[in-house]
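Appendix B. Extra example for self-study. Work through it before the problem class; the solution is given directly after the inputs so you can check yourself.
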Amino acid sequence: MSSIQYTRKIALIDCNSFYVSCERLFNPKIRKKPVVVLSNNDGCIISRSNEAKALGIKMGEPYFKEKEIIVKNNVQVFSSNYSLYGDISRRVMRTLKRFNSDIEIYSIDEAFLDLSNFSDNEIENIGHEIRSIVLKWTGIPTSIGIAKTKTLSKVANHIAKKKKSGVVSLIGIENIDPILEKVDINDVWGVGRQLTKFYHQNGIYNAKQLKNKSNTWIKKSSNVLSSRTAMELRGIPCIDLETKNSKRKSCVVSRSFGKRVEDLQELREAIAGYSLNASEKIRSESLVAKAITVFVRTSPFQRNFGYYSNSKTVDFPIATNNSIETVKVAMVILDSIFKNGYRYQKAGVMLTGLSNADGKKNLFSSEKDEKINSLMRSIDNTNYKYGRSTLSLASAGVQKGWNMRRQYSSKIDTADFYCLPTIRA
DNA sequence: TCTGGGGTCCTAGGACCC
DNA sequence: TCTGGGGTCCTAGGACCC
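Solution. Structure tokens for the complete assembly:
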């Protein structure tokens, strides 16, 4: 029996220590050294090189808690540089698309790729080919897991990360139970902290045990999502590849402040800026929002000054993406939830109920709307040409004493001509 | 001193309707 | 005194993901 088989095959391609790898691209001196990248505001550690992991530096830990290890071991530290990472990500995704246009870009550093059109016997080689081409063309190392379902390809990827070859395929393996038995339940895609606790209470500690549990029990004692996970572990596809770039349903812009903010005027500047930002984002995707939410809060970690957190949502009379309108409503909301005497740590704006903007005329459309729309377009164009926030509204402020900290930025921006690094051939 | 940001989906419960 | 049953829609909050 050597007939050629074409079973369903989903690959999960995951960039290794993605942010660290991006920084290393332009800085060969840190290639073999321990490196970490910090979250916005230099708050937490969100990417670690293998050398940093080996030192015991934990994912998601506050930077200040790991500072001692970092200093002692001369770990290289970077503030996050999202325009750089976004640009490198697009290059990686573009490269992947050459293998199949049926791709789901799952996050900045991960994509699912349908490889069903390759035969079972050649699939592992294809995996190696993808990996080496991505490395050659973008400089980014990846791990690749291939299996019949997305959940299983996550499992395969998890194993691939620990292998030198970086590629693991579960295609054509008759009995995968021995493999699943070695996968902790909390490493299964879709099983977080709460579910892990629940499964442990019920004697389920690894992926094999979940796979062999009855669906009715899972659905009854948990929910449909959990039973889908179990089905997928059995090789039955329940979660489709989402290859169509479907439009998002909400848009959030929020930041922690570089220092605590107590003054309403400063909060107003911040919220106005976030509103502008969010409006611009949804305009660029031709969306309009049905409602806007504003939230403010003090630090949940330092309650000695009292804790306060509040938010409020207001519907627009007519769905909009107009900055002037979003800022105006946001200011009204902020004034209504602001309370004096607190040290605010974070605030944000959320645009929800997004839908397509095109051709949305209604009874109340007017010439004035047209003028505003064209004003928005010219703001967007100018900002696109001359850099972010060239044109803004006065309410967004210019001082921005609350702006986030980015002490360790590599200042590399592949989208900004003046930041372009030079590369030797 | 210092603890990120941006998403999705599901469920329970309330409001409302007939 | 007696106080149904079933449906839809919306929202808040929780859990999960990266």
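Self-check: The mean pLDDT of chain A is 91. If your reasoning did not lead you there, revisit section 3.
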